[in-house]
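Milestone M4 deliverable, item 7.
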Amino acid sequence: MLFEKYSYIAVEGPIGVGKTSLARRLAARFGDHCRLLLEKPERNPFLARFYEDPQRFALSAQLFFLFQRIQELQELIQPDMFSRATVTDFLIEKDPLFARLTLGDEEYYLYQQMYKHLQPQVPVPDLVIYLQASPEKLIERVRRRNTAYERNITEDYLVRLVESYSRFFLHYEAAPVFMVNSDNLNFVEESNDFDLLIERIDRMRGGREFFSRGA
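Output delivered:
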């Protein structure tokens, strides 16, 4: 029923919140009827260096991500995009969010000019699933997965990132948003949590809803 209502779903949220894992499970639920488009941060040659020396490598890392995300989204412009459902683990609109967070004023101005010139005219998602988590939970998850290029992420950076995402989605109105506090939910290892999420999204009627579970 879910993909009868939403044929294009984007999962978003800060680093470590579990958006890629959830996107994979959503796509797997619907098998061959669903196309999965994922970011590939491990392919960004500047990312590890950015976390070590943000001031020096922020622009290089950000521009690589911009080109990569645009290339990924080109698939949505293909004539067969409506032939099956699509799940992504990113919105192109979040790219400027990271740029504003990491770039100095002059670099950000340069980035803005390139973004305006390159931004593809891609379809708007039918639904955005916005995963939230506390900075403490995010740093715990990042440390647990122990990805090499993430080892120098600081809690201060995650705090600022969480705040940036909150401001972004406070004003985001392009698509319906299902907000999920994932602090006490595990959509990968707990099938009940995943099934409950599907059920709550399927019952969604308004343009913005919130889902949470107490500890």
